């Protein structure tokens, strides 16, 4: 016969505690940063966002922004609380319909404690209601909100989201977006992706934009002002939307002559990088006093200064090349910036070659010869430049030289197969420099660690013979050089 074991109460309780599975451990807070060594407090731990729905209202005269952001997220641990990156004033937060406690902490953190902890794997809906005057908000002494005479623009790298929507602000967490923005009639509102609808009521016009493909937070953009908007379709039927501030003055003609060639340039780039990865394209030029362009997804931002010396298709090539290298395939961490900028810079070299204004080899030789060995330029390591040098010219020019060295080493057939295969291999995802090196070795069948170490990781000028580069002592400056270097590289 079976005997029933009688256990004292305390022993029963202890037995039950021992029986609790590890997954039911006490919920804990998500980390206030993803641990990026360049920007430790950027992004957050404990969850992943799959979609942002932003419903906004903006008054250009006063720069007042009101918004409701709805984030669809999945808990990656048993989560007692979590952070969002945000800098405006918050009035209410709800998690799964219930009010949550919240507090502003650190330089740009919104700490949220839901009424009930989230279990690992649980899908959550987070609603944040907020308001503020973005141009009056500074974080660590700077702002990424660009105030204009007729509105405002959010476009900067590595951060811009904090001034207009709460987010998990790191490229490793990509999501789709719906952006709906109401502005006074007669004012235009631009964002990424496709324009779903536009409707006017009671003196306000609401613009509804949708980005279906995964998109990093810094690649989300918002621009409000008085724009001339042009629309067209590519031969394959994709919508092309370009916009120009009405007060660009003497820059207007050159800006239009450049940005209106976006579809043509993108078609040309497809020959090198494969099928364009998104469902819309274009560009916009607001009247800002900035000196950089930025690859905001599907609709790059350009400064008027980019066209100060006349038309500049080279900068359009650079930003549209980023749609593959940087946008569709995003970096895993900010130290991997070379797989964005080195390739976009090299695309400009290929365009120069196509236009008969200097071959990629000639540009590489000139870039190499124009800087002596003791120039600080060579101390910057493109493969890990450090946060202070993330957008240093070496990341662009030495980064492009590295690709020319690779081309010389493995030959055109494998090199161009590599350029086209890489975006397909990681489409919609993230990758790092090591991933690219491994892929290059796989495609070429050659050991390449020494080549990449020489060009990307050594703080010294590589020998001229490295990987076949044989620069003359003083090669002639290629015709395209000044065009390529007209605008400063993106920086914050």
UniProtKB/TrEMBL annotation:
Low complexity: compositionally biased ranges: 465-475
Keyword Lyase among record annotations: no
Chain segments carrying region Disordered: 465-492
Gene3D superfamilies, sorted: Neutral Protease Domain 2, tricorn interacting facor f3 domain
InterPro entries: Aminopeptidase_N-like_N, Aminopeptidase_N-like_N_sf, Peptidase_M1, Peptidase_M1_aminopeptidases, Peptidase_M1_dom, Peptidase_M4/M1_CTD_sf
Peptidase M1 membrane alanine aminopeptidase domain ranges (all copies): 311-455
Domain of life, per lineage: Bacteria
Signal peptide: 1-24
Bias (Basic and acidic residues): 479-492
Catalytic activity, as annotated: Release of an N-terminal amino acid, Xaa-|-Yaa- from a peptide, amide or arylamide. Xaa is preferably Ala, but may be most amino acids including Pro (slow action). When a terminal hydrophobic residue is followed by a prolyl residue, the two may be released as an intact Xaa-Pro dipeptide
Family annotation (CDD domains): M1_APN_like (cd09603)
Pfam family, one: Peptidase_M1
Cofactor(s) this protein requires: Zn(2+)
Keyword set, alphabetical order: Hydrolase, Metal-binding, Metalloprotease, Protease, Signal, Zinc
EC code: 3.4.11.2
Residue ranges of every copy of the Aminopeptidase N-like N-terminal domain listed in the record: 50-219
Enzyme class: hydrolase
Family: Belongs to the peptidase M1 family.
The protein, known as: Aminopeptidase N
């Amino acid at each position: 016969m079976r005997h029933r074991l009688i256990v004292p109460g305390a022993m029963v309780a202890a037995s039950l505690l021992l029986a609790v599975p590890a997954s039911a451990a006490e919920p804990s807070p998500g980390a206030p940063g993803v641990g990026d060594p360049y920007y430790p407090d950027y992004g957050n731990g404990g969850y992943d966002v799959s979609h942002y729905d932003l419903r906004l209202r903006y008054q250009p005269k006063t720069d007042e922004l009101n918004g409701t952001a709805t984030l669809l997220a999945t808990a990656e641990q048993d989560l007692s609380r979590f952070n969002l990156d945000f800098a405006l004033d918050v009035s209410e937060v709800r998690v799964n319909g219930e009010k949550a406690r919240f507090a502003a902490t650190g330089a740009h953190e919104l700490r949220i404690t839901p009424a009930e902890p989230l279990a690992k794997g649980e899908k959550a809906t987070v609603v944040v209601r907020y308001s503020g005057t973005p141009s009056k908000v500074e974080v660590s002494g700077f702002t990424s909100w660009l105030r204009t005479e007729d509105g405002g623009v959010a476009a900067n790298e590595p951060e811009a989201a904090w001034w207009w929507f709460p987010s998990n602000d790191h490229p490793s967490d990509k999501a789709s977006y719906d952006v709906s923005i109401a502005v006074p009639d007669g004012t235009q509102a631009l964002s990424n992706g496709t324009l779903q609808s536009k409707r006017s009521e009671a003196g306000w016009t609401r613009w509804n934009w949708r980005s279906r493909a995964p998109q990093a937070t810094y690649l989300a953009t918002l621009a409000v002002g008085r724009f001339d908007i042009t629309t067209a379709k590519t031969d394959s039927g994709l919508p092309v939307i370009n916009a120009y501030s009405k007060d660009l003055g003497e820059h207007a003609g050159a800006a239009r002559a450049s940005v209106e060639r976006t579809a043509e340039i993108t078609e040309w780039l497809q020959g090198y990088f494969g099928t364009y990865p998104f469902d819309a394209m274009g560009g916009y030029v607001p009247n800002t006093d900035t000196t950089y362009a930025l690859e905001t997804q599907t609709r790059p931002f350009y400064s008027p200064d980019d066209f100060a010396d006349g038309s500049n298709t080279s900068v359009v090539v650079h930003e549209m090349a980023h749609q593959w290298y940087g946008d569709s395939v995003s970096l895993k961490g900010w130290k991997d910036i070379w797989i964005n900028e080195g390739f976009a810079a090299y695309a400009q070299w290929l365009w120069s070659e196509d236009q008969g204004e200097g071959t990629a080899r000639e540009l590489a030789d000139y870039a190499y010869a124009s800087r002596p060995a003791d120039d600080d330029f060579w101390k910057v390591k493109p493969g890990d430049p450090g946060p202070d040098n993330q957008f240093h010219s070496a990341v662009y020019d030495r980064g492009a030289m590295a690709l020319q060295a690779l081309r010389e080493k493995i030959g055109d057939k494998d090199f161009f197969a590599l350029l086209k295969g890489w975006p397909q291999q990681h489409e919609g995802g993230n990758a790092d420099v090591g991933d690219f090196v491994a892929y290059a070795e796989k495609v070429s069948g050659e050991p390449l660690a020494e080549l990449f170490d020489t060009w990307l990781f050594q703080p010294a000028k590589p020998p001229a013979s490295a990987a076949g580069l044989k620069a003359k002592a003083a090669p002639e400056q290629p015709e395209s050089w000044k065009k390529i270097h007209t605008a400063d590289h993106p920086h914050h």
